Amino acid sequence: MVCLQETKLSKAEGEHFLTYCKGWKGLFVQAMGSDGGIGILWRECEFSVSLVENHQNWLAVKAFSMSLNVHFIGICIYGPTKTKEKQRIWGQITDFLNLQKQGMLILGGDFNSILDVAKKLGGNNCTTQGMVDFRNFIQNSGLMDIYIENGIYTWTNRRRDFLNISERLDRFPISPVWIQDDFSVRAKFLPCSISNHFPIELHIDGHFHNIKTCFKFESMWWKDHNLISQLELWWREAKFGGSISFQIHKKLQYIKLKLKDWNRNVFRNIFYRKYFKCTRAQGA
After folding, report:
1. Which of 41, 95, 217, 245 pairs as cysteine with 26 (C-beta 3.0–4.6 A)?
2. Tens-digit pLDDT profile for residues 204-220
3. Among 190, 195, 130, which Cα is nearest to 156's?
């Protein structure tokens, strides 16, 4: 599936473009003259997609991935540049998400906003209000910003030295339910040719139908007096990039795996120990 922003295409031009893409389908929001325009393209053999809602700056679809065997909501976004317009768009999308019962969400596009000052290099300082509004939108929507493996800035003005300005305007916020044991979620830059924006590839691999038992922290583990120091050690050694919520989630995943290994090899499997004690008591 491909998410396009600032296509500068009319709806008719977008549909004509699809005639050159055999095996692909698409939905387009018409540009206002030479400004804006967004679209979503998908392979018929890989996705089933239907339109849910479309506006000038965003397009929402319901999709089914045949390879993952999962339904999800996808939203393609081209954020405005003015703060008031951004507030309006964030409010629209928040209201839309609040009405959705589908828990699997993927937002993608050029948000024309950064989450913090570290995501901008050069140029004038960003308005604090714009960053706060965008950060609140991501957090209040219960989304996680996916870490990009091979870079920081997604847009550049292509100038050199002190005239260069680079920002992370493009991203893929997703719902945390994607970050499960059964899914591997990765994002990386693709080579950039003539655009000021680097394309981003979001890769999701896994099979949701492989149901695993829920992890449960056993109170019996506290009997080991070294457990607290072990937890502190694992927390420090688990280092991940991305948003704070993403880092915390990955740290907790890391500690869960460490606890399972510790229980099996150090503490020994407590369920086996319970069974052993019960059978010994019955034998007595």
Report:
1. 41
2. 887 544 445 566 777 77
3. 195
